[in-house]
Amino acid sequence: MRKVDSGKILLGVVLIIIGLLLLAETLGVDMEPVWDVIFKMWPLIFIYIGVKKIVQAREPEKAE
After folding, report:
1. Residue 29 above 70 pLDDT?
2. Which of 7, 25, 40, 63 has CB 3.0 to 4.6 Å from 31, enough for a Cys bridge?
3. Among 6, 41, 40, 36, which Cα is nearest to 21's?
4. pLDDT the model gives residue 2
């Protein structure tokens, strides 16, 4: 079975969300409340990366 790289999936999802938000703003949707939340929550990126590293460190190495 192929191992899924969750970091690449997360990056793809984040880029899609940012693109949709920028498109909505271009189309005239009031995005100010959304951007406020994004700018307040950006430290969650560091938390995610830290948790991912801890989980990866605890996983046993697979012999290939």
Report:
1. yes
2. 25
3. 36
4. 63
